[in-house]
Write a structure and sequence with these properties.
The chain is an alpha/beta fold. It contains 34 helices and 27 strands. The chain starts with 10 loop residues before the first helix and ends in an 11-residue tail after the last helix.
Length: 916
Amino acid sequence: MPVGTNAYNSMWQVRNDAWSSLEESTAQLALACSQQRPAEQLTETVSATLDLLGPIERFWAVPGPQAYQYVRRLFAAGKYDRCAAVVARLNRALATDSYGGGQAWDSHADEDGYDHDPHPTEQARTDRPYFEVLVVEDMTEEQERALRAELRRWRRPDDQFVYEIVVVPSFDDALMAARLNFRLQACVVRRRFAHRSRHDTSSLRQFVSLLGSDNLMEFSVDERAQVLARSLARIRPELDLYLMTEIAVEDMASRLSHHFRRIFHSREGSLELHLSILDGIAARYRAPFFSALRSYSHRPTGVFHALPVSHGNSIVNSHWIRDMVDFYGLEVFLAETSATCGGLDSLLEPTGPLRDAQQLAATTFGSRQTYFVTNGTSTANKIVVQALVQPGDIVLVDRNCHQSHHYGLMLAGAMVTYLDAYRLNPYSMYGAVPVTQIKSQLLDLRRAGKLDRVKMLLLTNCTFDGIVYDVQRVMQECLAIKPDLIFLWDEAWFAFARFHPVYRPRTAMRAARTLAELLRQPDYKTSFDAQAEAIGAIDAAADEVLLSRRLLPDPARARVRVYATQSTHKTLTSLRQGSMIHVWDQDFSQKVEDTFHEAYMTHTSTSPNYQILASLDLGRRQAALEGFELVQKQIENAMRLRDAVDHHPLLSKYMRCLMTADLIPAEYRPSGIDQPLRSGLPNMIKAWDGDEFVLDPSRVTIYIGATGIEGDVFKRRYLMDRYGVQINKTSRNTVLFMTSIGTSRSSVAYLIEVLVTLARELEAQLADMSPAERAAHERAVQRLTAPSAPLPDFSGFHPSFTDGRGLPGREGDVRRAFYLSYNDSYCEYLKPDEVEQRVEAGEQVVSTTYVTPYPPGFPVLVPGQVFSPQILAFMRSLDTPEVHGYRADLGYRVYVDKALEIAATTRPAPPPDPAG
């Protein structure tokens, strides 16, 4: 059967499967004809597959349009044996990436179709990284062949990389090529190109969305080049862009150099272009710290410093631990050192290769500054909070954030205002915090005279379950109310998002840059003036007015101050605990750099792990050069998992994948699209452009309530213990599967095999159950599918831990509440029923610590927080043995009345009310 595109979410997989299908069908066709058997159906299949590949191959160099046309001619001529042999060779090259030597296909070359390279020694080298270069110009086939030959003539055996060109004649074709061909690393824009594609692109529409002007041909040559450069940068910002022109090259260089890496005169030959292309790739390929560490590890040294394991000295001659070298290999120990000189660098004061590596990371991730962290994003979060927050500053934070934020804010002495995310009671999980609630809290603080003390908004993007904020909207509306507000986005699970064109606008660094550029535009000032005319000054406008409309900040007052922390090791390539801090702060050098350095010194080891640092350097290189490809495959694998579960007749009986409509209420999805990616890329872009929240398709939450097995049991007893399938998060009736750039189609197939096996076992068990056993099973299913106790909102801080002004209990001094419990005489333990009795009697029972059940993994109580009937009902409904902060033998640790009285009398005086 020919491959159909409706079953796919990415064109690269359509292409790969189409070539595999073509190999199989041409081989069958050749065999049928040799045996003189009827072959009409096979002929139709081959023809349909070739028709599918036609519009795709023109965007790739290998096999590319020349190879495709050659196969098509062989098929049309009835040379089925030859056709099958050529297709088999091409498909093997695709499947194994064995075309990396840069051997081009040319239908005018030898009988085998290959245009053989004039350097035979180079042909033997297939170890060099291979990439493709897009050339945008409307040229004849003869001109294209001449350009390809000219560029290939400049190759040398010692070139570090090798490439082939893809020539497209139009603006539309260039954008489609950038979107579809992940091998592209550079683009050469020449003077003559059309606007619209002359090809039928209907089969590609579900995979591409064109961004550009409707009247491109009305622009001048340099204006068209600018529009194309901007459009390509929105899709693939990592591409090196070059311009070749025949007119006023000096003038164009002065006006367009910020769009292009180099501008060339087209009559001066192509050698400089060829060298520039290779140099551009080499710049991204650099891994300065990894290279320095590798070089150092191969030098003989005399170690009279710490670290006996350095160069393997304490291991290689050992009688008892030589198996350590056998297991880890010698290189890892050769690279172990305490040295910060001799070509290496100091993480605390980098001046050499580590500084260069961090600067390259800043370029790759779109930040102004980037800092490496070797002990995880938990530490990265504490560094940023300590650098920015002083004792008494008010910080707004999602109550369901990672525990490192709770501890970091406690250590910083912040007055914490917890925000409540929307609740997903059927699945015992929270979503994200609506922007109206954030604005409402800011306005409440303004009304209480505390807005000047608000320092930071701290949110997790994306959430553990894959809910993604509209980052720019959140920052834009908050800055309208508080123009100097600082934003910390915890992107622990979102480092990969930078490398996909749809995800990228919802990342902190891209949104910060976009917002800063927007505030500088004259058109924006006009929009802001119109808002001011409609509602007056925001400082004087009524709360109801500000909550009912989308707000614009004052461009003369707003400062873009954005930080992001990322667990590189979670979603990109790095050794465990490798993380990064990205900064886009207009006031960083004036207000933060010194305190940031002190915070970094506070939390960073003086003996950082060089292997982690080197892996961060290499992970950055990989993301810069193949992140686009890997993230596309990650999403495709997730969608294949979703399709396999939901379309399997047995699996769908017991489990289903939760979709966007399940996890994001309709009020936050004005697009009205329930499954954005499944309905094509244009619909995904529509939802991600306009909805307040969207769902990361690479995070697959499977609802298993119908199995009667709780999520944690399903994870531990079935997936991990029996089959070695590792997952992280569960709720009472869901399990979360995350695809990453390391997920393969084979691993997805294995997971499906495991799930089907478990479903068959469950089906067999149900068939053998006695009436009593079936009744027990049905009760278990009912318990997991019926609504549980509602998830509790934040109940509030006891007045002893607030500043005694404004909204009672909303923001509190977690640090005082935390450290007060170090005096045992201030604390007691109460069993759950004792707490309930006191709450029912109207007493305020106050927690001394964080109480966090797993699952769901968020603190339902923090130090200084009062118990509420909703919290007690929720805790009573849980059936999990793992509750941090609760002792099964003793109960909850709470404050005695004496402690609360002491806390009230020793409470720091509130800052003066700026309103008088």
